[in-house]
Amino acid sequence: MKRRQKRNMMLLGLILALHLIYILAGLGLRKAGIQLNLRWLFWNLGLAFMPVALAVPAYLLTSWRRHWGPISLGLAIGWLLFLPNACYMVTDLIHLQGSQLIGGNGVYLQSLSGWVRLIYIVGGILMALVDGLFSTSLIHQNVKWRRNKVFNFCWMSVISLLCGYGVYIGRFLRLNTWDVLQPKTLLLTLLQNIDKFTILFSFMLAAFYFAAYLIFDKLMRSEPHA
């Protein structure tokens, strides 16, 4: 248990360091003349980090007390509400339109600023995804029945579906996590916007997140070589 906690905290430190480097790199690129909309990038990355900010204290409290209490449960609920923000950034690839990376004849253009912009945005998306996967792993590690394969599959399927649906809500309905504070309005909006696309899109993102977590969880469970 102590080894796992140490490993988790080391990974948390690495994630924090990478976020700081990413922010500083963005400011440096902007100063160098690279066109980057840092406002939405930093905002979305900040929201993507919220699941980590909520999962870490929930994980530590539960590990310390050996059970889920009111505070840790409240933090876990908050984690679940913010979790879609981590997967949401995958859809931010649409912001690459107009980057002028491909010419009219189908030849890739040697536009350094365009390629730097692509790598920087993709880097932010990957960090956001790791935020979500890491936070999910922390919560999962303290789930009582995590050793039961059937329970694990059902639990992760539900989490992935809620995450996928949350991305749909944010991208297409333009709702935010804090809209849960207006439950009646939120429920009405959701019920009025259920169609075939809603279901298929949610399942597509859910499958993506489920597969990504399977890989991440496998890596987290692997023992480091001596």
UniProtKB/TrEMBL annotation:
Signal peptide: none annotated. The chain crosses the membrane at residues 40-61, 73-91, 118-138, 150-169, 197-216. Coiled coil: none annotated. It comes from the Bacteria. InterPro entries: DUF1361. Keywords: Membrane, Transmembrane, Transmembrane helix. The keyword Transmembrane applies. This is DUF1361 domain-containing protein.
